[in-house]
Amino acid sequence: MVHVREMAAADIEAVSTIRVRGWQAAYAGVVPRTYLDAMTVADDAGQRRQWFSQPGRESTDLVALGDRGPVGWICFGPYRGETPGPERVGEVYALYIAPDLIGRGIGRTLLGEAHARLKAQAFEASALWVLRDNQRARRFYEQAGYRADGATQDDTCDGATLTELRYHRTL
How far is CA 130 from CA 14, 42, 43, 80, in A? Predict the structure, then answer.
């Protein structure tokens, strides 16, 4: 059982640990190993501190708290591109769970809270981007009612092209 609350500056180190370890676990075999091996919690925490302290940011960060402190993190806000439909669309920017706790409902809990908050802010739909080759994440989002809407974007990571699919659902 976890409790969800807004992220505080004191959570940055724990969130960075969740994010970096999450990348290294979830994207093994998808993202080049050189990139994953070069990721550090210290670098991520430095970037996160700078981003977290920006005044006027429109995103919301939530953490899931378990017995050992933060065990999951989600970040969401207004959609950052051309919206995939006529409705007002929010976006889930990132969702990571401590790798040893995946499959225990923490992600569903965080995603449900993000959906409730987006809906309370008058968003009618939610979108997100997921790596095409991340089958586990795609199944998770599909079980939560998301569907690929045909939009794609490519990113380059240590010389490898990674294709992301946009997923969309009505709130």
Answer: 23, 25, 23, 15
56-84 average pLDDT score: 93
152-158, long-range: CB < 8 A, 24+ apart: 153/129, 157/31, 157/32, 157/35, 158/31, 158/32, 158/34, 158/35
**Pairing of β 89-97 and β 69-78:** antiparallel
Give the integer Cα–Cα distance in Å for 14 and 80.
26
Angle at 133 between CA 115 and CA 22, to 5 degrees: 60
Q: What is the CATH number of the domain that holds 41?
A: 3.40.630.30
Range of the domain at 85: 3-170
- Given a cut of 70, is residue 84 above it in pLDDT? no
Mean of pLDDT values over 11-28: 96
Kindly state the tokens that stand for 8. 């505080």
Sort residue 72 into left (φ over 0), alpha (ψ -120 to 50) or beta. beta
pLDDT at 83 over 90: no
User: Of residues 39 and 52, which shows the higher confidence score?
Assistant: 39
